[in-house]
Amino acid sequence: MEDDRAQQEGAGDMERDLSDAEPRADKAPLAAFVSPAQLCVITLVTLVLGEASVMLLLSIMPPLNTQIEAVVDGILLAILACPFLYILVYRPMRTHIEQRKLSEARKDRLISRLAQAREEIIALQGIIPICAKCKTIRNDPEAMEAVERYIREFAGVRLPLGVCPRCVKMLHPQRVSDDSEKGA
Length: 184
Description:
This protein is mainly alpha-helical. The protein has 2 domains: 2-125; 136-183, no CATH class. The protein is built from 6 helices and 2 strands, in the order αααββααα. It has a two-stranded antiparallel sheet. Helix 1 (2-21) packs antiparallel against helix 3 (66-125), helix 2 (36-60) packs antiparallel against helix 3 and helix 5 (165-171) packs across helix 6. The longest helix is centred in the middle third of the chain and has 60 residues, at 66-125. It is rod-shaped. Residues 18-26 have low confidence and may be disordered.
């Protein structure tokens, strides 16, 4: 009963670990779900639209020296493109990196918990439930079998039965006294 409860608690802990580290839609902006290819396209479109806007603005202005026009073009492009690139590229990439880090940490926690559970299972497999009175071993929830049979089946060892000298004295005291008289 306690084992079942411990397993259920362990499963609950693991579910909490999974839910804690999963990215939530309410915390992440919609742009966080943009793929890297889409981010490249967004960057190119932003730069092209920014450059087109700057060229339109420069065509409206009076003619400037080529060098001054290049500097103004660069400054205006940076002013127009940087906020869009920050909102549409940098924030989603940062969110994606944070989610990856959370996923990696969650994976590492789960791997360590699985390794610990595996060690516990291996340790529990080494425990043999044996009756204190009749010395039979429980191999199923309701089936008991003799120690000799259990060892023969699982270890592949044959156990020849015999009686130790102490038990011979307890079980057959007349035989021990007969043997001691013959030896004398």
